[in-house]
Structures are given as C-alpha cells and as structure tokens.
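Hi R.,

Here's the chain you asked about this morning:
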Amino acid sequence: MSGTLSRLSDDLASDLADCHLCPRHCAVDRTAGPAGRCGTGALARVDAAFAHFGEEPCLVGRGGSGTIFFGGCGLGCIFCQNASISRGGEGREMTADGLAGLMLALQQQGCQNVNLVTPTHVLPQCVSALDIAVRRGLSVPLVCNAGGYEDPGTLRRLDGVFDLFLPDLKTLDAERGRLWFGAPDYPEVACAALREMHRQVGPLVTDDRGAAVRGLVVRHLVMPGATEDAFAVMAFLASLGPGVAVSILAQYRPLAGATGCPGLERRPATTEVEAVIAEARRLGLRIVGTVS
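And the predicted structure, written out as tokens:
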C-alpha cells in the first residue's frame, strides 16, 4: 500500500501547478500561493483535529471519529455553517509530516477512524501524509467526508485509498445548484461522483459492534420547501443498490449568506423532515443517522 500511496502522492502533487482536482477546474498554480475557488496553496490548512462524538453512531464507534477539519472549500455553499473555516482563512498550514502526525495521534487516542473533513482541494497533501502515516503504523479506517461535488476522474485515481466515503448529496435540482453553490452542474457531477464512490467501497459494512469499517454513507440536509427534491435524492440513492446507507440531517438554519435566497429564510418544518425519513424507509434505504 505504501508504494502505491507514494506514487499517487507524486502524481497528485503535480496537479497543484495547474489545478483540476475538483469540478471547478480553476487551472491555477497553487504552488505559488493560495489561489482558486478553494483559496488554498501548496500546503493544507488545518483548523481542528479531535475525537468527534457528534457524527453518525456507526462512525463514532467507541472512541469517537478522528476528525481533521481542513480550511478552504471548492464548493462554497451560501448557507455554510462553517464559513469561517471554509472561506474565512482560519487554520494553520501543515506539512505532510505534521498532518501524518495528527492522523497517528488520533489513532493513538483510540479513535474509530481518521475522518478527513472537506479534503477535496487538499487530496495531494492528504495522500502524501497518508504515505508517511501508513509507514508509521496507521491502520484505522480512513473516511473521505466531502461535499459531494467531486470530480469523478480524481476519484478514480483514489481507488483503494479510502475505506469509507461520507459525501453530501445536497440537491438534484440544477437551479438550486446555481443559487446555492454557483454550480448548476452539481446534480450530474455529484451523482457521477457517488456512483464512483459506491463502485469503490460498496454498501456500508459494520463490525460486530456496529462500527463502520467500509462502504458508502450519504448525508442529505433537508432544506425548507424542498421536500420533492429530497425525495428525488432518496430515489437516486436507492438506485445505487440495496440498502444504501443514508444520514438525514435537519440542522439547517438561515445564516447571513442565505438570507437573500428565496425559500431559505426559515428552518425546515418537522413535517418536512419526517416526510423525507418516511420516504427513505419506503425505498428501503438504511438510515444510520438523523440529526436535528
């Protein structure tokens, strides 16, 4: 595995000079400093790393999910609850060796996994760190916790790296993609990305204690007035195969960036959330979390 990671690390690192890692295809030279939609340069910026007990139960396990939150983001949701991290420049730059040390420290603390949060734009840096960490004994499952707007070609290059994929699937409506993220192609790109993730890791597999060891878990944030969109999301997930795991989230709240967008001025109603959960059950999806 280490030899594979080393070769992949070198391959991905070369992309930073003409970046096409995400579907934005900014084609910027990130080796010269922070650039592009993600606002990130040659080094990954880490905002926080800790054992997280607020994730889905199958990810938390007994020791928590070892989350590493990266600064910057290529998607840029107008309703992002972590805008100070994704767009505000918070966090500190870390070398691959430093990032590998964080991964190993989380494992040493007894975390169930290492959970890379919003890693799309720093995949070269993450793989370089993994190459070091695996050679030093990293063995817990590795989670790619992403926004769903991923380049399928980039994902194919990662085949065999991640044990678990934890993407969002936010909408299947092109107009909402345009309004919410400036990405009208979000539905088609995200669907292609999730198909590739499912191909690589398959449905969720848990151990005898219910902790996730491999597979795909998809998050969907229920939005106000978008029940029909959520139903379409559930139908797509059901089309991937039997028993696809879904986490249905209801913690949307209007923030400054979303107040000017029609329909986003309120939280989703309890009846809307309940309808989405009922539809997921009707379709035979495996519900592994509901967060309000």
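The mean pLDDT is 93.

Let me know if you need anything else.
M.
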